[in-house]
Amino acid sequence: GIWDQDKAGKRMKLPTPETWETQVSLRGNKASIWEELIDHRKLPFMAMLRNLRNLIIAGISQKHHQWVINKLTDERAVVYSRQFPFRFFSAYEVLKGLENVSKVRPLS
Length: 108
What we know:
The protein is an all-alpha fold.
């Protein structure tokens, strides 16, 4: 780039990237936020897998819930995600835990 003497010695601020982490942190763990991330394809596979509990408890719509299920059961998406098997097992354990909780008290 071109040297700008006026900017020398000053700290420059980069814009905050719009990622799923920044959006959930700024706007809250709400269904509308997760749905917006899904709609705009800003929820990577690993983030989706690791946040299944948050997605379910936030109460995403049936349409978005089905999209997540389709993605997690798509063989090509699973292979392309390059996740280790324990990630899927951890997600399974979370879902089993939610199932046990919902038997005691229904999820909203």
